[in-house]
Amino acid sequence: MDPILNSFADFASRLSYRDLPPNAVKAGKERLLDALGCALGAYDCDTAEIGRSLAGPAARQELAGRILGSSDLAAADAAAFINSCMIRDLDFNDTYPGGHPSDSLGGLFAVAPQIGASGQRLITATVVAYEIFIRLQMKAQLRERGWDQGFGISVGAAAGLANLMGLSRAVAQHAIGITAVANMPMRASRAGQLSMWKGAATAYAVRNAVFGVQLAAAGMTGPEAPFTGRHGLTELISGPIELPPFGTAPDDFFIARAKIKYWPVVYNMQALVWAAIELRKQVSAEQIASVNVETYWSAWHESGSEPAKWDPRTRETADHSLPYIFAWTLRHGLIDQRAFVPESYLDPSIRSFMNRVTVRINDEFEKDFPRVVRMRVTATDHSGKSYQAYIVNPLGHEDNPVSAAELATKFMRLCEPRLGEARAASALKQWQNIDEMTDVKPAFDAIVVEAESKGRAVARHG
């Protein structure tokens, strides 16, 4: 017996749209829209291009998946990889401490239009994936033990796919078990100078989840106790854990705790961007002699604990670098994709300013995290005068949520360059009302990039 596996299989196979309270439906719709915008904004990113170059056709039509922004079909696991690469590339998609739950959606996006899923089924499957991922992040503390978020992403994706596809409880259990034991990635993916793999690691986990679900659906059985059994998660890695139970009351759903980003940098640096904007109103970069950042452990560990973050040599390192993000924002009053081209993060003048930045953990801030996100930045000018910015729960935090209008603006800003204003607006309306669609395929057709490359497609949708 594995109570964690049993609870996941029960939840994945039994949850239906009618079980969802309004807050979970709203949160699911918002995060689907946000993930799609992030994916379209990164449509031609390098990781997705590599995925497209390797994607082959499905062995059978029912094993095919849809590639976002395209009419192309490929083997569903390959399509899921490409989709999650796009969702993840800009580091603009939602986050829960220790990972990005929307990374799991690449698999749901690949499969949903191919099986004639309704919008309500897609929302429900999204909720399943998020609820499982968040529970694992809350209690297993894998990041703190040096393991990467791909474990929770893959398990959540497998459960979400089982729900979307209407698989039996037994098949869902096998799919989750297979996926759990086969996907425990190391957090070395996110240490030192970061590589392209930072944006592809969870996509790889989602690809594996899709294949695990297909194996289970074809009759493959999985291990009986991957979480709490001998040599399972709790014995080898996490120690005993007790996950919050599933339920159908509004407070039983955690999906709204996944924070939607306002700036295209790692979530722990959202507060830093706002602090830099506030300090810019008080003092210019040229006047500053030193900067001290007080933050919580996760922000320090991810973005300010190693020399590489003071010497970013890749885009992936730059968007995780505390001193660089602060310096750029202080200079420009915002941060966007212009900050993440080589001529920006290799600029010698900005690097000299970065060396004035120090960071330390504030024990009070750490005690309150993640329910309260706090960051305090103190700048001292050359005359010794101090200036301070103190940010609590930056925009996108569950207690300071992005509004519907702000989310729509983000979607349009990301999608207009790919679709044009009229088509982006039409797609926005469809996805804002995705719960009313009996078949989501037209909503995926609405986000096809007209200039998509020909010759890539391994099949065309009919």
Give an overview of the whole structure:
It is a single chain. The protein is an alpha+beta fold and 462 residues long. The protein has two domains: 3-262 and 414-445, 2-methylcitrate dehydratase PrpD, CATH 1.10.4100; 267-392, 60s Ribosomal Protein L30, Chain: A (2-Layer Sandwich), CATH 3.30.1330. It has 20 helices and six strands. The chain has a four-stranded mixed β-sheet. A two-stranded antiparallel sheet has the order 1-2. Helix 3 runs antiparallel to helix 4, helix 6 runs antiparallel to helix 7 and helix 11 (270-280) runs parallel beside helix 14 (322-332). The N and C termini lie far apart (44 Å).
Largest sheet: 4 strands, mixed
The CATH homologous superfamily of the largest domain is named 2-methylcitrate dehydratase PrpD
Count structural domains.
2
Instruction: Tell me the number of helical segments per DSSP (H or I, 4 or more residues long).
Output: 20
Helix content bin: 40-55%
Poorly predicted ranges (pLDDT <50, ≥5 residues)?
452-462
Number of strands: 6
Radius of gyration: 22 Å
What can be said about this structure in brief?
The protein contains 20 helices and 6 strands.
SSE layout and pairings?
Layout: H1 3-14, H2 22-41, H3 46-54, E1 64-66, E2 73-75, H4 76-89, H5 105-111, H6 119-140, H7 150-164, H8 169-182, H9 201-217, H10 233-238, H11 270-280, E3 288-295, H12 297-303, H13 315-318, H14 322-332, H15 342-345, H16 348-354, E4 357-361, H17 363-368, E5 374-381, E6 386-392, H18 404-419, H19 421-432, H20 441-445
Parallel strand pairs: 3-4
Antiparallel strand pairs: 1-2, 3-5, 5-6
Helix pairs in contact: 1-7, 1-8, 2-4, 2-6, 2-18, 3-4, 4-5, 4-9, 5-7, 6-7, 7-8, 7-9, 8-9, 11-14, 14-16, 18-19
